[in-house]
Amino acid sequence: MSARAPTFRVFWHRCAGAPLRPSFQTVHALSWRSFASKAPQATKPTSQAAGQAHRVRNTIQASPIKAGNIGQLALKVARQGDVVLFNARSQRSYVLSAYGLSAFCFAYAVYNSNAVFRDPLTVLPMWQQALFGGICVTMSVMGTLFFTRTSHMIRKITAIKSQGHTYIRFEVRRLMPFTKPYQIEVLPSQVSISKRLVVSEQAAKRFEGESRKLGSDDGAPSFFKAPVQKLSRGLWRLFLSVRQVFTSEDFILMQIEGRKATFRLDSNGYVSSDLYALGNPVRFTGKK
What we know:
Oligomer: single chain
Number of domains: 2
Distance between the termini: 38 Å
Helix content: 25-40%
Strand content: 15-25%
Shape: elongated
Number of helices: 7
Structural class: alpha+beta
């Protein structure tokens, strides 16, 4: 089982010719509103895109509920041993993007506060000093926010058997860099999904262009054979990572009983269908 390809995508990898990065919109599970309801009515998708979205919808709707899946997962663990439910893709670009944005915000705040308050070239009026002070505080808050977004990111979820019971083991990234992830072992009933992904029928058509740009890493030529292609693909991935830092798109939020933190699962990684034992992370919305 390879974790390189973004195989989650709500079983998108099982649909032939499906785009690599379909559009997901996050929505709180307890919320009565869907972000998809705010989007303007799009044009009618092509037959190919509509067929892909229809297959995704059927797969999601056919998935069993959590209660039924827990027993099946326990039997599978008893027969096969440890079962990998989720394996995150490389988080290097996301982490570097978050650190870079955080460093820029802090550097901007320090430089401007020094130029305005400590060593000004000219004495500014009080209202301008207050304005620049507010900007520096805002940039500091944004830098802190970007830095903290690298924590509580789930790197791996595994179903294991311990002391005669089935447990779910989480490997979670720490806030500080260059540190090993910590592990959490809980019962499946102690895990809940607080924010799901919403899939729309217009996803395939809207992100078809992105799939052509990004493509797949499988069988990709080396940098020396196609430097322009590799550079273009790397820049595109960097852009997607920066956008993900700002918008927190494609993240599923999970809660663990007894833990105050909210854990984030990047839907671009490998996810087994057995993850539905913990709850349905996806909601499909058809075109109205």
